Amino acid sequence: MSGAETINVLGLDPASLEALVAQWGGKPFRARQLSQWVHQRGVDRFQDMSDLAKDFRARLEAHCVVQAPPLNLEKRSADGTRKWLFDMGLGNAIETVFIPEDDRGTLCISSQAGCTVACPFCSTGYQGFSRNLSTAEIVGQLWYANRALREDPAAARLGAPPEESHRAVSNVVMMGMGEPLLNYDQVLGALRLMLDDHAYGLSRRRVTVSTSGVVPMIDRLARDCPVALAVSLHAPNDELRDRLVPLNRKHPLDELLDACNRYLEHAPRDFITFEYIMLDGVNDADEHARQLIEVARRVRCKFNLIPFNPFPQSGLRRSPAARIRLFSQRLVDAGLVVTVRKTRGDDIDAACGQLAGEVRDRTRITERLPDRAKIVIRKKEHG
Ligand code: SAH
Ligand code: SF4
C-alpha cells in the first residue's frame, strides 16, 4: 500500500483500511470515521469530511480516491425497478438492479464481466468472459445505488423498511452478472464491507450469495463469511444438470448437496435457497418434480422457482403459468416451502438472466462452446 499508486477507498475491506491508516500513524477510530463518511454518507471528496484531522485529509487527498465505476446508462421501470449500466473499460459493461418492495429494497449486484460457467439459459453466459471485478467495483455498485436512491426520496422510501428509512438498500443479492464464487477474494472483501457496522452494516441474513455450485468455495465462504446462500440447482439429476449448469460436470449433485449441508452448520439461516428456472419441456415435468422432492429430502431448503426470462439467442421458452403452478403444487404437497419469483423490471431488460451488459470475450470461451441452443432436447407442449 505504498508507492505512487492511487488507492480507491471503496476497495479496502475494514482490515485493509485500518492497516492503511495505521501505516500513517492513525488510530483505528480514524479508519472507522473515514469509513462512515464514505460508505454511510456517500461522500467522495475528502475535503468535505469535516471532522477528519487536517493532516489526515491531506494524506488522503494525496494518495486516495473514492471512485465508483463510471455510469453508462440508467433506466427506470414502470414498477419502480431501476437499472444502472456501468462501464468497465475495454468495451465491457456490467449491470446493477434495484428492486423496491413494500418492506425492503434489494440491490442485485454483479461480480464479473461475463461468466465462464456458460449456462445455456443465461444471457451473461452467452457473452463469454472478460474479467473479474475488483472489490472496489463490486462495492462501488452498492455505494452508487445508495447515493442515487438517497437523492430520490420517493425511491428510497419505497424500498426501505420504516426502521431503516435512512437506508435505501436493505438487502443485497449477488445475482447479477458473473459467478461470485469464481471471483472469491474480491467478493469476500466486498461482503466484509457490506456487513461491517462502520460501512453498510447489513446483517448476514440480508446479504445473499447465489452460486451455480462452486463446491470448494462454498466451504471457504462458510469459514470466512457465512452469509445467506442461494444455489442455482435448475435440474434434479446429474444428466440434465450437466447440460443446464455445465459446472455440474466438475462438481456433481452429490458433492453439491454435501457442501450445502456443511454450509448449513455456519449459515445465518437454517435453510439453503434452491433456485430452479422453469424451462418449457426441459426441466418442468412431473417426473422432475418427483426427483426434486428426493433431492430436497437431503438438505434443509426452500425453493425459488424462476420463470425463465427469454432472450433472442437462447432457443428456450418459459414454462406456461399453469405448468409452473402445478410444478409448484407438487413440491408444496410434499411439504416443501416454495415461492415463485415475480418478474420485475422486464420492460427495461432488468429481469434475471437478461442482464446483458456488454462483454469483450477475452477468453474466447464462446467460440469453444458447442451450439448451446441445442439444449432444448424435448420440445414438449404443455396444455
Ligand atoms: N452465477 C450465479 C449468480 C448470477 S445468476 C448463479 O448462477 O447462481 C442469478 C440467478 O439468475 C441464477 O439462479 C440464474 O440461474 C438465474 N438466471 C439466469 N438466467 C436466467 C434467465 N434467462 N431467466 C431467469 N433466471 C435466470
Ligand atoms: Fe454464470 Fe450464473 Fe449465468 Fe450460469 S446463470 S452463466 S453461473 S451468471
Keywords for this entry:
single chain, 383 residues, alpha/beta, DNA polymerase, domain 1, TIM Barrel, 2 domains, ten-stranded mixed beta sheet, two-stranded parallel ribbon, 13 helices, disordered C terminus, binds S-adenosyl-L-homocysteine, binds iron/sulfur cluster
What can be said about this structure in brief?
The active site is at 95 (proton acceptor), 352 (s-methylcysteine intermediate). Its EC number is 2.1.1.192. The chain is of the alpha/beta class.
How does this model look, in words?
[4Fe-4S] cluster binds at residues 115, 119, 122. GO terms for molecular function: 4 iron, 4 sulfur cluster binding; metal ion binding; rRNA (adenine(2503)-C2-)-methyltransferase activity; rRNA binding; tRNA (adenine(37)-C2)-methyltransferase activity; tRNA binding. Its cofactor is [4Fe-4S] cluster. Residues 101-347 form the Radical SAM core domain. The protein is an alpha/beta fold. The chain folds into two domains: 7-65, Orthogonal Bundle (DNA polymerase, domain 1); 71-382, Aldolase class I (TIM Barrel, Alpha-Beta Barrel). It is 34% helix and 18% strand. The chain is built from 13 helices and 14 strands. The chain has helices at 14-23, 28-40, 54-63, 123-126, 135-150, 153-159, 184-195, 215-224, 238-244, 253-264, 286-296, 321-333, 365-368, and strands at 7-8, 64-65, 71-76, 82-89, 92-100, 105-108, 112-114, 129-132, 171-174, 207-211, 228-232, 272-278, 301-307, 338-340. Strands 3-4-5-6-9-10-11-12-13-14 form a ten-stranded mixed β-sheet. It has a two-stranded parallel ribbon with strand order 1-2. It has a two-stranded antiparallel sheet with strand order 7-8. Strand 5 (92-100) and strand 6 (105-108) form a beta hairpin. Helix 5 (135-150) packs parallel to helix 7 (184-195) and helix 8 (215-224) packs parallel to helix 10 (253-264). Bound molecules: S-adenosyl-L-homocysteine and iron/sulfur cluster. The site of S-adenosyl-L-homocysteine (SAH) has 15 residues, from strand 10 and strand 12.
